[in-house]
Design a protein that fits this description.
By secondary structure, the chain is of the alpha+beta class. It has helices at residues 6-12, 19-37, 41-54, 59-72, 77-91, 97-112, 116-136, 140-152, 212-220, and strands at residues 174-178, 203-207, 225-234, 237-247, 252-259, 264-269, 287-292, 295-300, 318-324, 331-339, 342-347, 350-356, 365-370, 372-382. Strands 3, 4, 5, 6, 7, 8, 9, 10, 11, 12, 13 and 14 form a 12-stranded antiparallel β-sheet that branches. A hairpin with a 2-residue loop joins β11 and β12. α2 (19-37) packs parallel to α4 (59-72), α5 runs antiparallel to α6 and α7 runs antiparallel to α8. The longest helix is centred in the first third of the chain and has 21 residues, at 116-136.
Length: 383
């Protein structure tokens, strides 16, 4: 998929679904089906996107979008129809009418891509075999190898969640990093008599502590590398200490809900700037947000003329503006989408920045916590 529709990104980055949202999504999906039957395809697509923004697994909305994309010759049709068939199968017992739609969705998928359904079945069987091997040989090497296979093949994007292998991971690794010798300062007159202290070699302890269920959920949400200490407080809600998420993506979107509290949270796309101007903080390498309490600094491309100082023709990230969020907000939603040079940034659904310049094509997307902060539904999508 070369270009990514902002509405599709909104669906991919949707916040956790609630029962009320599912009801709204189902009603919107039925309305979209009626509009599509009347030939009002653009309106039907719009309603489908709204349904999926409420529930990313809304079966009828996925089905109608798949059928519309099929008519338009859009390669995404098979993906939506596969997801629709899967959801219809889950809900068929409660809603027998879904049986016929599931059969139709599977028929359309076979016509579009004869291997799509078979691939999902093969990967599901493979996941089952991995779980069996890990259960039989639960040594550290086998478990690490199994997790490497799960990550490399991105099984969470293909295998239904209820069929993903439940594999424990070895205990978190504690890595000791010896810093270079740091000579002790020479004693001055006020230091008094006594022997002069010798050089010291402090040791930094770096601990990664990510429970297996948390790692599985974060990788399913689009993140490939997870570090730091993560504690699950509620569904999709995590207390993070000195943690970082990375996704090797260039185009797409990232979102996270940051709860009010201590700690600093950075949310960045294209986080690989190597030629930052001196006026940019050293810890800022991409485009996005730096959030501390209710203070937000927005880094974008909006400081005109700075390119004249650079050795490249692309627009570097700059401190665009500072914001103060309402103290009444217990949680704030931050989202960024980027496609080629088109950068859009949102806070609580309101667009705070839009620009379209030549930008460096380097990843990754990141969410990084310094200190301790609570974050909710961190997601990355794109390519």
């Amino acid at each position: 998929m070369k270009h990514i529709c902002p509405l599709v990104l909104a669906v991919m980055l949707a916040v956790p679904v609630r029962a009320a949202d599912q009801t709204v999504a189902a009603a919107l999906g039925a309305a979209a089906a009626k509009l599509a039957a009347e030939g009002k395809l653009d309106k039907a697509k719009e309603i489908c996107y709204k349904a999926l923004a409420n529930d990313e697994d809304a079966a009828e909305a996925l089905y109608e979008l798949g059928r519309i994309f099929e008519r338009e010759g859009n390669a995404a049709a098979a993906d939506f129809l596969v997801r629709a068939a899967r959801q219809f199968a889950k809900e068929e017992a409660a809603n027998p009418a879904f049986g016929g739609k599931r059969v139709d969705a599977e028929r359309r998928v076979r016509a579009l891509n004869p291997y799509a359904l078979r691939y999902a079945d093969v990967m599901t069987d493979y996941a089952r075999e991995l779980a069996a091997i890990a259960k039989k040989l639960p040594d550290a090497m086998t478990l690490e190898e199994a997790w490497d296979r799960i990550t490399t093949l991105q099984l969470a994007t293909v295998v239904p969640p209820e069929k993903m292998p439940v594999i424990e991971r070895p205990a978190p690794k504690v890595v000791k990093v010896d810093k270079p010798d740091v000579p002790a300062p020479r004693p001055g007159p006020a230091d008094g008599p006594g022997p002069r202290p010798s050089s010291v070699t402090p040791t930094e302890i770096v601990t990664n502590d990510v429970p297996v269920d948390v790692e599985r959920a974060l990788k399913a949400a689009g993140w490939s590398t997870i570090s730091g200490t993560w504690r699950k407080k509620a569904e999709n809600v995590y207390e993070v200490t000195n943690g970082k998420l990375e996704a090797p993506k260039v185009d797409g979107g990232v979102q996270v809900i940051v709860h009010k509290g201590e700690g600093t949270v950075k949310v960045m796309v294209r986080n690989a700037r190597k030629d930052n101007p001196t006026l940019l903080p050293k810890d800022i390498k991409g485009y996005g947000y730096k959030i501390t309490g209710n203070k937000v600094r927005v880094f974008s491309t909006a400081m005109y003329g700075i390119d004249m100082l650079m050795t490249t023709s692309s627009a570097p990230p700059q401190a665009y503006r500072d914001m103060t969020l309402s103290d009444a907000n217990a949680r704030n939603l931050f989202a960024i989408t980027i496609q080629d040079g088109l950068l859009e940034m949102y806070i609580n659904g309101k667009r705070e920045h839009r620009s379209n310049y030549k930008l460096p094509k380097d990843g990754p997307f990141i969410i990084e916590v310094s200190g301790t902060a609570t974050v909710e539904s961190p997601k990355a999508a794109g390519q």
